[in-house]
User: What shape does this take?
Amino acid sequence: DIVMTQTPLSSPVTLGQPASISCRSSQSLVHSDGNTHLSWLHQRPGQPPRLLIYKISNRFSGVPDRFSGSGAGTDFTLKISTVEAEDVGVYYCMQATQFPYTFGQGTKLEIK
Amino acid sequence: QVQLVQSGAEVKKPGASVKVSCKASGYTFTSDYVHWVRQAPGQGFEWMGLINPSGTSANYAQKFQGRVTLNRDTSTSTVYMELSSLRSEDTALYYCAPESPGRGYLGYWGQGTLVTVSS
Assistant: This one.
């Protein structure tokens, strides 16, 4: 199975400041179709996860442009340009290149 | 608006089975694969398996082989996940999430069904 490792596991940030989360996979996420199926999800307490970014850097429908994704191969980053109060919660990276799909452990974003 | 409505919370005894349903509203996911993912209390996500659009084939995570069965009723746009030989470690929120073929991401998730296994 592909192991997804996120850092940091906790990230206290100040409102209006940027935030960054890293995700590393144990093997390349480049699929045989040429795409890299790495996505980012956000989960608030008591809610199902919500897709933010797919295929490394594509924002899903309705996702604000303060969220951006980058990376290649085995190293990926999610950036929030200016953190807002509604951004608190846990962020997960997920790979869908190979079965079983696997997730990072999660990064808890909280406001200082 | 895409909505995935799952069946309600369940409480089961160890050794029993549970069947959770997932119904699409606002669209028909007849062309989509449907995944099941679970999340134990306070924990991360664990992929369990998926079923193909026609319901003729399923792929299960090795950990759940022999204990999980996925089915779908295409006439009602409903997918079912059955987990047998329940143990306390199966206490979790169970989510369904469709995926259009080749997309490589899970854009929509059900609201989750809490399954509690307790004697």
Observations:
- The two ends of chain A are 36 Å apart (CA to CA).
